[in-house]
Design goal:
The protein is an alpha/beta fold. It has 6 helices and 9 strands; from the N terminus they run αββαβαβαβαββββα. The strands form 3 sheets. Strands 1-9-6-2-5 form a 5-stranded mixed β-sheet. α1 packs parallel to α3 and α4 runs parallel beside α5.
C-alpha cells in the first residue's frame, strides 16, 4: 500500500472513531488549568480518551515518517487536529520546528505522546522538553481511564473504552518552563504522568490497569 492509501485508511478510522465517541460519556477533570498556549503530555497507551476530549481543537501533534505515521496522520487530521510528520528517529527536529511555527501562528496547544511512536513503553523522550523550552510554555500532563476498559496486547498496552463506557479525562498541574531546565526534567514528567494515571485507575476501577513503572 502507498502512503496515500495508509492516510486515507486513517481518515476512515477517524470517521468510525467519531461514531464510537457518540456512545461514550466523557467527563473531564481540572480543565481550568488549560490556558492556551500550552503543551499536553500523555502516554501513547492512553491516547484515545484524551483524543475524544479534544476533537476539532486544531491542536498540533506529531506522526512518524512511516506508513504507520501516515495512518496516524489520517486519523488525527480526520478528528480535527494537525499532524506534523517526524519522530525521534527520523525528521523529529523538522517536525518540532513546524509545531513551534504552528503555535506561534495561533494553534491553541501542542500534544505529544511522550513515549511514542514505538516506545520504549512509558519512557519519556526529550522532544517534548525541547518544544516546551523553545516556546517557553508549560507542560500539562493528561491521562484517562474508563469504566469498561479493553487492554490491548500492543507494545503500549493501549487502553480502549468499550462502547457505552464512561471515560474520565484528568488534566494534571502544569509543569512550568523553569521546572524543565534541570537534569531531572524527564523524570519529573514521567512521575507526573505515572502518578496521575495510577491514581485515576485506582479511583475509577479499584485497581491499576498497568503495573508500576
Amino acid at each position: 500500500m502507498s502512503e496515500r492509501s495508509w492516510y486515507l485508511g486513517g481518515r476512515a478510522i477517524a470517521l468510525l472513531t467519531r461514531l464510537w465517541r457518540l456512545t461514550i460519556r466523557i467527563h473531564a477533570e481540572n480543565r481550568a488549568v488549560l490556558v492556551p498556549p500550552y503543551v499536553l503530555a500523555l502516554w501513547h497507551g492512553r491516547i484515545l480518551g484524551s483524543l475524544m476530549d479534544n476533537f476539532d481543537s486544531r491542536c498540533v501533534t506529531m506522526a512518524s515518517q512511516s506508513n504507520d505515521g501516515a495512518l496516524a496522520a489520517g486519523i488525527v487530521e480526520g478528528l480535527g487536529l494537525r499532524a506534523m510528520r517526524g519522530s525521534s528517529s527520523r525528521g523529529g527536529r523538522d517536525a518540532l520546528r513546524e509545531m513551534e511555527g504552528a503555535i506561534a501562528a495561533g494553534a491553541p496547544f501542542a500534544a505529544l505522546t511522550v513515549d511514542g511512536p514505538k516506545g520504549p513503553w512509558r519512557k519519556v523522550k526529550p522532544g517534548i522538553i525541547v518544544l516546551a523550552r523553545q516556546l517557553g510554555l508549560p507542560i500539562i500532563p493528561v491521562t484517562n481511564t474508563c469504566t469498561r476498559p479493553l487492554l490491548l496486547r500492543s507494545w503500549d498496552r493501549m487502553v480502549l473504552p468499550r462502547p457505552f463506557s464512561r471515560v474520565v479525562v484528568r488534566y494534571g498541574q502544569p509543569i512550568s518552563p523553569a521546572e524543565l531546565r534541570g537534569q531531572d526534567a524527564i523524570e519529573r514528567i514521567a512521575s507526573a504522568l505515572e502518578t496521575l494515571t495510577q491514581e485515576l485507575d485506582s479511583e475509577m476501577l479499584g485497581r491499576a490497569l498497568w503495573p508500576p513503572r
